[in-house]
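Private note to self, pasted from the team thread so I don't lose it. Backbone tokens:
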């Protein structure tokens, strides 16, 4: 399978014009890169003007758990699907931290996304404090088990993605060590295998995210065996993001 490289623009850039320019530069730079699956997750408001192309698949940074109704401020999985969006990030650490998203809310979102055939990118990861206390595995297990609660194996295809994003590495410039990332990849596979079975575990693609740049990108995919990357800050620099994609294939 091709490596999956996801750009998460977060709450950037400030204008639609800048968003259009950034998208255009990335599209141009990836013209002949057919060996990676590249997804861009822009802010909702820009999404409709940045139509997916053959180089770039459309993604979203979040969504709600109902498909429509009186829920001021929310964007539904159905709306995303109707915009040709294919992937949705669910449970990003910034949403867990700043918006108090719980594993229960994340579970509802995952079910709503799967119900209409969108591909979720479930983010999991421990904080620095949890890591210091040696609780990493327990936290990952809890996030996976509660996040996937009552989701049958039949709903999980190879487009179900889990991103291991240690909170201490996100936006800090302090990426996870390659050996540690390899170990976490195996631990996450084992948790999924115990929860379902090894067939499901082999289907789910596991990405790494947290201070990825063009210098460390290739090692996560080629040495640590991850299925791809979730890139935040570096995806706002077209040249850097293009380089990350090229080095990962
Ligand atoms: P970062 O963010 O690459 O800026 O660390 C990753 C993410 O938030 O997905």
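Design output:
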């Amino acid at each position: 399978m091709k490596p999956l490289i996801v750009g998460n623009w977060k709450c950037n850039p400030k204008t639609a014009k800048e968003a259009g320019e950034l998208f255009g530069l990335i599209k141009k730079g990836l013209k002949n890169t057919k060996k990676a699956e590249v997804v861009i997750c822009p802010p909702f408001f820009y999404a409709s003007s940045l139509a997916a192309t053959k180089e770039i698949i459309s993604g979203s940074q979040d969504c709600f758990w109902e498909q429509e109704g009186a829920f001021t401020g929310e964007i539904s999985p159905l709306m995303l699907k109707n915009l040709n969006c294919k992937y949705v990030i669910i449970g990003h650490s910034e949403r867990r931290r700043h918006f108090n998203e719980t594993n229960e809310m994340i579970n509802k979102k995952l079910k709503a996304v799967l119900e209409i055939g969108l591909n979720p990118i479930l983010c999991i990861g421990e904080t620095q404090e949890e890591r210091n206390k040696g609780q990493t595995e327990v936290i990952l297990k809890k996030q996976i088990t509660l996040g996937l609660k009552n989701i049958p194996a039949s709903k999980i295809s190879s487009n179900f993605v889990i991103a291991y994003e240690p909170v201490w590495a996100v936006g800090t410039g302090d990426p996870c060590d390659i050996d540690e990332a390899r170990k976490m990849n195996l631990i996450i596979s084992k948790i999924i295998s115990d929860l379902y079975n090894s067939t499901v575990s082999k289907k789910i693609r596991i990405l790494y995210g947290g201070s990825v740049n063009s210098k460390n990108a290739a090692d996560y995919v080629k040495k640590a065996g991850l299925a791809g990357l979730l890139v935040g800050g570096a995806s706002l620099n077209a040249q850097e993001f293009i380089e990350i994609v090229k080095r990962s294939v």
